[in-house]
Every structure is written in C-alpha cells, then in structure tokens.
Design brief:
The protein is α/β, with parallel strands linked by helices. It has 2 domains: 81 residues, Alpha-Beta Plaits (2-Layer Sandwich); 195 residues, Vaccinia Virus protein VP39 (Rossmann fold, 3-Layer(aba) Sandwich), CATH 3.40.50.150. Helix content is 34%, strand content 26%. The protein has 9 helices and 14 strands. A 7-stranded mixed sheet has the order 10-9-8-11-12-14-13, sandwiched between helices. A hairpin with a 2-residue loop joins β13 and β14. The longest helix is centred in the N-terminal third of the chain and has 15 residues.
C-alpha cells in the first residue's frame, strides 16, 4: 500500500513524516506535492486509512486541513519498497538499531538491536524512539525491573534487557504489534527476559503489575498525563525510581511538566530532537 498525505504547509512536513513513520512506514518521500510512505497491505485498507487520518490529525495543530489517499503499488517488489531507505542507526555510543537485512560491525561494548518494525511502532527511524534510547542508556541500572508502556515493536524493552535489566514487562494492546514484538524478542535473544502483556495500560493494570525500578512510556502525551500518578505508584514513590516519557511534542511539554509535578515527579533530564520532547523524571521524594 502507498499512503499519501496532502495539504499541510511545508513547515508541518516534519510532523507529517513522523506520523507516517509512526503508522509503520519504512521511509517517507516527497513527490508531486504529497508525502508518501510504503506500508504492508492491511486486511481492511479503508478502515486502516480512516484510522490513519485520525492519527495524523492528532499530530498536527488543530484545524489543519489534511487529505489522506491510498493506492496499491503495481508491479513492484513490496518487500524492497518497504525496506527502501532503512539502514543501521547508531543512537548512542553503545546502542545501534538495525533492520535484520542490514549489516553492522559492532565495536567492543556496543549493543546491536535487530528490529524489524513491520506494522508496529518503534524503530530507530523515529525521533521519539531515539530520545527514549538516549535517556535509557544513561538511566538504566543493571538488575532493574523495567516496565514498557505501549511497547509496540518491543524495541525499548529489548534495549533495557540488553543493557542489563533483570526483567522487562512490555504492555501493548495491539495484537499485530505483539506478533512483531515476539519476533523481535526472539531474534535479539531476550524472550525469556521479557513478559508481554496484551492489554490496554490503565491505572488498574499498572497496580496489578507491581513495582518497577524504571518505567518507559513512548506514547501520546494525552495518554501519558492521566497515567502519571499510577506510574509514580509503580515506582513506589522512591527517589531511586525513574520514568522516561516520550511521544510528546515540544508544544505539549509544559502540560506534561505541570501534570508530572502534580503527580510527585521532578524533571531530571530532557532530550529534544526536531519537534519532539522526551524526559527522564524521578519521584520528588
């Protein structure tokens, strides 16, 4: 499937491109006045496009006119089109993310994450994922119990275990994403270290899952903000606990900072890239 978005002004092109990558696009190109991406064919194209239209609208300023079109790509190698433009990315000095069809010669101490995104969100191609990985690299302590809320492809949970976490718990309600996540767990040799919970993250589930040393939430700010008190409780209120949040536009960060403070968190470190804002938080203690 080829998905095309028309309408937003040029200064919003970066937001549209990020949205297309979040929908599972392998790469984004500009052609004939539209931003295009290639996707694996969904079971119900019309329903998928309707959902894509709603999600893209959420990434853009309210009232922005958007046209979303789709078509089948004829006489093309789908796998080649989907993979086009994806390559290894060195996110930090020791974290590299790469698709399985590419090669990377690791240096001593480097951790190479083999992640094939398919239709799940979570690759090194998106700024929010890179922000999380950069913060995670400095925040994780060996032996941590880690919760990944809205785990998508499983990349953050995989990185946590590869960096030394004793256990990862990944929560994701999308069954298609979880098929992809399980494959990624196996190819990275961490399937025994990660428990995958197929459910919608809410206050009751977070309470049921128990206490964690580190919580990761690379999801929309509108989902993160109401969960902040429960995430604080999941860390036991300990000043040694850590929460990494991402998926937040810079323009949304003041609201997140305000609600985080009200929930008992303080901001320890901020990571910004393009339009995106990520942060490491700790209970105020």
């Amino acid at each position: 499937m080829v998905l095309a978005v028309r309408g937003p002004s040029p200064e919003l092109a970066g937001l549209v491109a990020d949205g297309l990558l979040a929908l599972g696009g392998a790469a984004v190109e500009e052609k004939d006045g539209a931003l295009l991406t290639y996707l694996l064919p969904p079971d119900d194209p019309e329903a998928f496009v309707a959902g894509a239209r709603e999600r893209i609208a959420e990434w853009l300023p309210e009232g922005t006119a958007v046209e979303v079109e789709w078509r089948w790509q004829e006489n093309e190698d789908w796998a080649a089109e989907w993979k086009r433009g994806l390559g290894p990315r060195q996110v930090t000095g020791r974290i590299v993310v790469k698709p399985t069809w590419t090669e990377w010669e690791a240096t001593p101490g480097q951790i190479v994450l083999d992640v094939d995104p398919q239709m799940a969100f979570g690759t090194g191609e998106h700024a929010t994922t890179r922000g999380c990985l950069r913060l995670l690299d400095g925040a994780l302590r060996p032996g941590d119990r880690v919760l990944d809320v809205g785990s998508g492809s499983g990349i953050l949970a995989i990185a946590a275990v590869r960096l030394g976490a004793a256990q990862g718990v990944a929560v994701e309600y999308d069954p298609d994403a979880n098929i992809n996540a399980r494959e990624n767990f196996e190819r990275n040799g961490v399937e025994r270290g990660i428990r995958l919970v197929e459910a919608m993250a809410d206050d009751a589930l977070l309470e049921e899952l128990g206490r964690f040393d580190l919580v990761l939430a690379n999801i929309l700010s509108g989902v993160i903000r109401p969960l902040l008190p429960s995430m604080h409780a999941a860390l036991g209120g300990s000043p040694e606990g850590r929460l990494i949040v991402s998926g937040i536009l810079r323009t949304e960060s003041p609201d997140v900072i305000r609600d985080a403070g009200a929930a008992g968190f303080r901001i320890e470190r901020v990571d910004e890239e393009e339009e995106w804002w990520s942060a490491l938080l700790r209970p105020a203690g």
